[in-house]
Amino acid sequence: ELFSDILNKAVAVDPKFAPAYYDLYYYNLQRLPPDFAAAQNYATKFTASTDQDPQNDYLVAQTCWAKKDYDCAINTAKGIISKAGDQTKARTYKLLASAYVGKGDTAGAKQYIDQYFAKAKEEEIIPQDYILRGQIGGNDSIVFDSYVKAAQMDSVCDSKMKTLQEGVDFFKNKNNKVKEA
After folding, report:
1. How many degrees, rounded to 5, is the angle at CA 156 between CA 150 and CA 161?
2. Please, are residues 133 and 110 in contact by the beta-carbon 8 Å criterion?
3. What residues of the chain score a pLDDT lower than 70?
4. Whole-prediction pTM
5. Angle between helix 58-66 and 90-102 (nearest 10)
6. Which of 6, 47, 113, 127 is least buried, going by the fewest C-beta atoms within 10 A?
7. pLDDT one-digit tens code per residue, 110-123
């Protein structure tokens, strides 16, 4: 509450202070339960307070994705790519891949996860990205390597163990005893 109070005071002083709207967007999107309407309102205020950039539509696509409106997320993200071209940020491709996986279309997701890994800087890639790539790849070796890479990247022992257990469970459900071991 203190976080949102301070940010709301900041925009009361300067209604064009875009960084506060950006943080308020994420605060409302990630809180439990998420407040999608408030998040979208702050995304709109952020966009109105910044230079016009097709990348700003990412907040709309991300909100659609969070609401599990995957068609909206896909259409909005593809709109960003058509407007921004080569300047499209890597995160847009990851969102597209994740939205296609959410729809159950791993074949459709493949090109976007590949583009994400081609465009993303090393510091942008997180362990879950490798797991997403593994889910899309479908090949047991790719899935296995993805879980191992994700666990190696993680510096927190508990989450590293959780990632490895997810991999064990994945292969156990597929009755692949070698990879499970």
Report:
1. 60
2. no
3. 138
4. 0.84
5. 20
6. 6
7. 999 999 999 999 89
